[in-house]
């Protein structure tokens, strides 16, 4: 079954129908992520399905495609950070299952799953720790000009010993 994207799903119903869902929504619907980016005007395209995976556990598999506007930590200007992310999460798995299958889990709230929270968590984890433009020359103040030679003079901590030796 292919359906329209909504925020909350009843997991047992969607698993029974092996639902494949797709849709788009604004980044502004994800408040925690909104505080980590420069603009919340981006659109997210999401596809996911509720399925029983090869381990016979209920799971959610999906794909997120978007471009986030983040701040470059070198020049403090906005930069586009593209995200093309696949995810696979077990639903309400035990700690033993998570450790043995090496797949993360998502917990439901009395059988209901807020997919926007799942998507927001995956996007937060996909963000780089430090956002930087590819070109290190994005901040001209951090780069020596090509005409100047950078000379670093280091003080020798043993220079005092030389004066004692000369006496």
Describe the structure.
- The chain is α/β, with parallel strands linked by helices.
- It has one domain.
- Helix content is 23%, strand content 34%.
- The strands form two sheets. Strands 1-3-4-5-6-7 form a six-stranded mixed beta sheet. Strands 2-8 form a two-stranded antiparallel ribbon.
- A hairpin with a 6-residue loop joins β5 and β6.
- The N and C termini lie far apart (92 Å).
The percent of residues in helical segments reads 10-25%
Number of helices: 5
The sequence of SSEs as H and E is EEHEHEEEHEEHH
Kindly report the average pLDDT value: 86
Radius of gyration: 25 Å
Q: What structural category characterises the helix and strand content?
A: alpha/beta
Question: What proportion strand?
Answer: 25-35%
Unreliable spans: none
General shape: elongated
Secondary structure blueprint with pairings:
Elements: E1 2-4, E2 8-10, H1 11-17, E3 20-26, H2 31-34, E4 43-52, E5 58-71, E6 78-91, H3 95-101, E7 105-106, E8 112-114, H4 115-126, H5 159-166
Parallel strand pairs: 1-3, 6-7
Antiparallel strand pairs: 2-8, 3-4, 4-5, 5-6
């Amino acid at each position: 079954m292919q359906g329209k994207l909504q925020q909350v799903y009843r997991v047992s119903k969607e698993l029974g129908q092996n639902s494949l869902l797709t849709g788009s929504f604004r980044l502004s619907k994800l408040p925690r992520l909104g505080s980590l980016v420069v603009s919340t005007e981006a659109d997210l395209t999401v596809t996911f399905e509720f399925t029983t995976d090869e381990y016979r556990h209920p799971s959610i598999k999906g794909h997120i495609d978007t471009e986030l506007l983040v701040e470059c930590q070198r020049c403090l200007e906005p930069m586009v950070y593209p995200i093309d992310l696949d995810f696979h999460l077990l639903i309400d798995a035990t700690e033993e299952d998570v450790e043995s299958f090496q797949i993360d889990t998502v917990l439901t709230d009395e059988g209901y799953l807020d997919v926007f929270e799942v998507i927001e968590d995956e996007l937060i984890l996909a963000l780089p720790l430090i956002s930087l433009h590819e070109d290190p020359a994005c901040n001209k103040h951090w780069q020596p000009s090509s005409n100047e030679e950078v000379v670093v003079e280091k003080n020798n901590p043993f220079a005092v010993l030389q004066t004692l030796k000369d006496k």
